[in-house]
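Example 9 (inverse folding). The structure is encoded as follows.
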């Protein structure tokens, strides 16, 4: 059985995952109208889908543990970006924010001696390590490329390879 405070924390994470899905969907839509960014577009659509899966896992867990998962209202995400680098910088900032939130809930689970929730959240801890590494790698690549159009072409072509095995 989830405590009321744990249920609230997990529901806040449901909202964060939903916001992530929306933010990456907006990034995909923005990329889709930029010339030649089909790979980036597909990447962000896939990221959006993954975040929705993360949200659904949380909803299922909350309800299975005797809580009540709340489907949250969402604010409008950022819709346009100054550049591809700006979009990926926002991607990294967002992933760091999600990691911080997960870490706070892990700490709370340990404080409450809620080992079932702690165990469940370990998947998210590992996932966030991977997501931050990916976001940092892509930001580093874009920093190296700068405004070089041939580099941007290769970045767009190769981005799907950065999803890693099983992603």
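The amino acid assigned to each position is listed next.
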């Amino acid at each position: 059985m989830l405590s009321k405070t744990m249920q609230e924390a997990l529901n806040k994470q449901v909202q964060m995952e939903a916001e992530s899905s929306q933010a990456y969907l907006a990034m995909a839509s923005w990329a889709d109208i930029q010339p030649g960014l089909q790979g980036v577009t597909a990447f962000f659509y896939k990221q959006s889908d993954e975040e929705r899966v993360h949200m659904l896992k949380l909803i299922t867990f909350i309800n299975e543990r005797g809580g009540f998962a709340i489907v949250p209202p969402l604010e409008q995400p950022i819709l346009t970006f100054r550049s591809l680098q700006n979009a990926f910088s926002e991607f990294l900032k967002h992933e760091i924010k999600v990691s911080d939130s997960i870490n706070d809930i892990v700490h709370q689970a340990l404080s409450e001696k809620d080992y079932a929730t702690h165990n469940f959240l370990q998947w998210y801890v590992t996932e966030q390590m991977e997501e931050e590494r990916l976001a940092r790698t892509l930001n580093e690549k874009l920093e190296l490329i700068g405004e070089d159009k041939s580099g941007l072409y290769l970045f767009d072509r190769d981005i799907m390879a950065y999803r890693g095995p099983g992603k």
